Amino acid sequence: MRHGKKNNHLGRTTSHRKAMLANMASSLIKHKRIITTVAKAKTLRIYIEPLITKSKDATTHNYRTVFAYLKDKEAVTELFTVVSGKVANRPGGYTRILKTGNRAGDNADMAMIELVDFNEFFDGFAKDKKKATTRRSRRSGAPTTTATAPNTAAPKAAVVEDIQDAVVVEEVVEASAPVIVEAIEESPAVETTTEEAPTEETTSDETSTEETK
Question: Does the residue 26 lie in any domain?
């Protein structure tokens, strides 16, 4: 009977299960993500996260303890040099499980387990989400900073000065307009003389006198 047995045995003996988990943990440390079944991924997460916590304190005792579980020198070196620096400020939750669907052969639930700090896509998504929240706060009427205040005040003063100059110019034009009109009205009109064209009778008389001479 399975009373009080909280760990998933995965249908294997103790030695087989420990060897499989050590191999999967070493592969996860080296490649930062692996694809396996959902049941194995959940068991691997319980197996590897305490080892990652021990890697934060690089003592000889922790080296030997981690090596007793992994049994791989390259994986232990990678864990204490690269992974420990990435997860130094994280208090736990070093892995992420993403389901990828069912396997074609036996329809088993498949998943990808990865180290959280080595996925750049989710980090960029989180940064974009933070930027979006700050933009919303600015739209909602956040107070402006003192650095932008002088820049906004200078154009307003310039506009006020331009308006005042325009009003003065209009007053000058309105004051001088009647004087110009009165000067035009007082100036005498120019008399235009038109020369009358000679009539046909005078031309005929002149021609007759010339013939008699």
Answer: yes
pLDDT at 71 over 70: yes
pLDDT at 7 over 60: yes
At residue 213 the predicted structure's pLDDT band, cuts being 50, 70 and 90, is very low
Instruction: Reply yes or no on whether the pLDDT at 3 is more than 80.
Output: yes
Domain assignment present for 182: no
In a domain? residue 7: no
Q: Specify the number of domains making up the chain.
A: 1
3-state secondary structure the chain: CCCCCCCCCCCCCHHHHHHHHHHHHHHHHHHCEEEEEHHHHHHHHHHHHHHHHHHCCCCHHHHHHHHHHHCCHHHHHHHHHHHHHHCCCCCCCCEEEEEEEECCCCCCEEEEEEEHHHCHHHHHHHHHHHHHHHHHHHHCCCCCCCCCHHHHHHHHHHHHHHHHHHHHHHHHHHHHHHHHHHHHHHCCCCCCCCCCCCCHHHHHHHHHHHHHC
Tokens linked to 110? 């498949």
Domain that holds residue 76: 14-120
| Mean pLDDT for the stretch of residues 90-101 | 94
Quick one: tokens of 53? 């916590």
pLDDT tens-place string over residues 104-126: 999 999 999 999 999 877 665 55
CATH number, domain of 37, equals: 3.90.1030.10
